[in-house]
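dumping this here so i dont lose it
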């Protein structure tokens, strides 16, 4: 194969493995941990079928910075299968991992490359020299230091990417970029120490492969409409992690990039591949005076929701002192089908009953 052939990159991010997956749960209920593992493994399947030349994980592989050996071993297994198939895997530690992969021994493989510091990896792919530069999430940097907005230039220099000749140059980060949007209100990142300024993106990269933003989006222009030096591609998360994401389609990206093309023209295809996700329903109820009233209301909510839904029911706050919700946990479990998850609490209160 010649250098003119496109390099196929599978980009997945924000898998948040370990979320709602305790090893020794104190309460028996349906948990969401398997939802995230399912999305993670399904996103990697195309690479195992030969549909990718490089796999990039854009960060937040795990939901917590400290996880068990068993969880890391389970997460590493599909990545190692990809690497064993001859496909390079690149991983960016995210903010949930505080910029450092836990139990990194499980990820030691000659084809698995982890950004434990600013650096570049030179890969030979389909006859092309591909240089992948990046650095861990800015969460790793010490308190009191300037944020990624001010330090981006120095961090990029520290990767040493300019020291490598390349047919294709990619930048992998786990950061928020100016212009990225999140949430049902379309909040737009604009300024802030932890927001990368669009104008600071250097020339020479074919694309920025990014994690941290859970909504799939591709940024090609800054907030003034000027073209970016390179497109910023967010695959989004593989599952809904909060009710703010309830209307978002989740998935991953399959990319084709042409080595030797001018950086602004190297991205030939960016195909978003949706993943099956559990529906998420949010219902706000008027606070009933008696448990029997709440029970009847919840029966209607459960009957109207898909049987595999994550149902978030909110009562108006403030929460009465010393009271979680006016209904026994055992009764709640009896109301909810086995395939459904229910999260019940008062608006503005962190106290929840989950079944």
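and the seq i came up w/
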């Amino acid at each position: 194969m010649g250098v003119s052939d496109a390099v196929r990159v599978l980009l997945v991010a924000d898998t948040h493995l370990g979320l709602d997956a305790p090893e020794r749960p104190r309460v028996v209920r349906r948990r969401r941990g398997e939802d995230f593992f399912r999305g993670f493994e399904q996103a990697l399947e195309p690479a195992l079928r030969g549909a990718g030349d490089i796999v990039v994980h854009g960060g937040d592989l795990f939901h917590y910075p400290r996880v068990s050996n068993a969880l890391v071993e389970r997460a590493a297994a599909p990545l190692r299968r990809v690497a064993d198939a001859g496909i390079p895997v690149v991983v960016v530690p995210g903010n949930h991992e505080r910029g450092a992969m836990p139990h990194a021994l499980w990820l030691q493989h000659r084809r698995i490359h982890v950004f434990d510091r600013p650096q570049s990896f030179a890969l030979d792919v389909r006859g092309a020299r591909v240089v992948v530069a990046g650095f861990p999430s800015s969460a790793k940097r010490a308190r009191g230091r300037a944020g990624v907005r001010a330090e981006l230039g120095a961090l990029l220099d520290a990767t040493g990417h300019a020291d490598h000749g390349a047919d294709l140059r990619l930048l992998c980060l786990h950061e928020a970029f100016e212009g990225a949007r999140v949430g049902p209100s379309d909040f737009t990142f604009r300024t802030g120490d932890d927001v990368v300024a669009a104008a600071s993106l250097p020339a020479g990269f074919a694309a920025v492969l990014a994690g941290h933003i859970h909504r799939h989006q591709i940024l090609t222009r800054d907030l003034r409409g000027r073209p970016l030096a390179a497109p910023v591609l967010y695959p989004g998360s593989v599952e809904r992690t909060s009710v703010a994401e309830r209307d978002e389609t989740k998935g991953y990206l399959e990319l084709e990039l042409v080595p030797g093309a001018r950086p602004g023209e190297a991205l030939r295809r960016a195909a978003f591949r949706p993943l099956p996700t559990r529906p998420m329903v949010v219902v706000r109820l008027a606070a009933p005076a008696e448990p029997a009233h709440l029970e009847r209301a919840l029966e209607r909510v459960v009957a109207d929701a898909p049987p595999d839904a994550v149902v978030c029911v909110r009562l108006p706050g403030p929460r009465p002192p010393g009271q979680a919700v006016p209904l026994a946990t055992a009764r709640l479990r009896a109301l909810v089908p086995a395939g459904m998850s229910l999260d019940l609490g008062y608006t503005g209160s962190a106290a929840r009953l989950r079944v």
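The chain has two domains: 7-274, 280-354.
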